[in-house]
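Team,

Forwarding the record for the chain on the shared tracking sheet. I've put the sequence and predicted structure together so nobody has to dig through attachments.
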Amino acid sequence: MSSRRSFLSGLGAITVAATATSVSKVAMATLPEPINQTKPDTMPPLIPDTGRPYNPVVTLNGWTLPWRMNKGVKEFHLVAEPVIREMAPGLKAHLWGYNGQSPGPTIEVVEGDRVRIFVTNKLPEHTSVHWHGQRLPNGMDGVSGLTQPAIPSGKTFVYEFIARRPGTFMYHPHADEMTQMAMGMMGFWVTHPKNKHQQIANVDRDFVFLLNAYDIDPGAYTPKISTMLDFNLWSWNSRVFPGIDPLVVRKNDRVRIRVGNLTMTNHPIHIHGHEFQVTGTDGGPVPQSARWPEITTDIAVGQMRQIEFIADEEGDWAFHCHKSHHTMNAMGHDTPTLIGIDQSDIAGKIANLIPDYMVMGSGGMADMTEMPMPLPENTLPMMTGKGPFGGVDMGGMFSVLKVRKNQKQGDYKDPGWYKHPAGTVAREWTGNLPLPARSADVGIKEENQSMPIKHQHHHEIEVQVRKPVGKMGH
């Protein structure tokens, strides 16, 4: 892009990636600059100044990959490499990703663009890139051994195709997929419509993020790649709460959120305070006649769901996966249930031997958020995060939709906690409730009762059961 220099200076933490040693300087000089991003913050949208115009997306705790125009072709450079990803303050993971991060940068193009993607492999093994959901020539589909040779370590391959349909897609390896995806190799792809589209509305805020999961032992840094279901870190864009940024919008904005699932299980994504419609899948936009209001949508493995709503209720609204174990961090699945067990006698004896011993779990897990207990290096409490009223008791796949009437257009900065109008916060009741009206109360007219009882008998009725006579049923 012609504004690459200003773009780089604006982001500050972006650096030019080192070239692969086996690629000649002459060959590398012909490629687009490989650009890295190391900050885990949500970067501002990348406004296009070359190629067709479009309304850019915002990648939650991520960024969009810059490109260059080369004789009408939009060229990108992805670098597959080991990365260090801060999942939340206090927890870093040694992952594999693209251009300095996991997930890799979002790629944004416009319907009809001819796209050329150079992929340099700096991993210790071969790889490939599958363009999940795209219509393209078979030889560009990225399945190593089937549609192309695998990309050897230290080599650069090129993919080229036309972005044929608008929608939301993903990219990930199809080479040693179990290892490479478990290590965090994935990214988002958005193809914007080139003209006004009947089924694709204009929106004010457009967010994207990927669901991914890791199994990292407390104190360790590298995920276990053989785990199938018992993950202990459920993340959005390889971030866990409280490290996930809020989704900041203006009141009455039309908001679109695109969510892709590359974990090993489904995720019911749920929003508070608003209703949404599912307006798109990986297959394309959903026709208007097939939409209905929802507050939760289940996203299966390998799927994308695009939801839209009007943010017309001010406040700090929870937005999360509704599987309760997916909103916890560093969770041990072999922890015994101690609810209801009196540990006072044994706790005193253990405390004589271990002065820092604390009774845990006998009244539930919430007390763990308040305990100043020591943790292993490089891990997080199971439930963490502080709100304006105390501990939030959440981790993992959890964030906050922050709706503000005074938020400026294009401003994604966190506005802080919502200031509730007087009398609108749930509180302890310290007075006496008035007694409800009862039907037997003397002097209470029936029309003043909260639930009038019709045809009430005022005398006792004896119920007698008669024996059947003759055949059964007569």
